[in-house]
Design goal:
Distance between the termini: 47 Å
Structural class: alpha+beta
Order of helices and strands: HEEHEEEEHHH
Strand order of the largest sheet: 2-1-3-4-5-6
Radius of gyration: 28 Å
Largest sheet: 6 strands, antiparallel
Shape: elongated
Length: 174
């Protein structure tokens, strides 16, 4: 009660604040027409941007954790990281970091990226719901902790009996 719930509440409140900033960043920087920077080059065509992103992902090292900055989109920096096997994750970084897995389709990867940025609001809503749930759990736990132990008398009887049995066993050996 004194650590777990307060820590979780603190972390969720920070995440929600970060999501709020990222949502504002996205709203402020989202281009009216598609625009992205990949490998230092600006693209206004999704397929060409996706092809360049795919090319960069092919240059990524083969060790798990190998990482590379690849560009920017709507005010966020973009990076890729090698995961297990041939899986590569794409990260959008603002105040928080959001992740999706790259696939085989160049256009599909750009669509995933756009959907991830658009989905920050849903992530914030999920965290707000979880925060509300954790706050309720904390309140319930505090109430439960204030209740007296309902089996206190039975426990006292059993502990008394245990002491008697221990004494009897101790004297039996003498």
């Amino acid at each position: 009660i004194s650590r777990h719930y307060p820590n979780k509440i603190h972390n969720l409140e920070n995440a929600i604040k970060n999501h709020t900033v990222d949502i504002q960043t996205f709203i402020h920087n989202k281009p009216t027409e598609f625009s992205i920077i990949i490998g230092g080059k600006a693209y206004d065509e999704r397929v060409k941007a996706g092809e360049h992103l795919k090319m960069l992902s092919n240059k990524l090292g083969n060790s798990i954790g190998d990482s590379m900055e690849v560009g920017s989109y709507a005010g966020f920096s973009l990076s890729i990281t090698r995961q297990s096997g041939w899986n590569i994750d794409l990260y959008i970084k603002g105040k928080s970091t959001y992740q999706t897995t790259l696939g085989d389709s160049e256009l599909g990867n750009i669509t995933r990226l756009e959907n991830l940025a658009e989905g920050i609001e849903k992530i914030k809503i999920k965290d707000e719901q979880e925060l509300e749930n954790v706050q309720k759990q904390l309140a319930d736990a505090k109430l439960e902790a204030q209740k007296p132990f309902e089996h206190e008398e039975k426990l006292a009887e059993l502990l008394k009996r245990q002491v008697e049995l221990n004494m009897a066993l101790e004297f039996k050996d003498i």
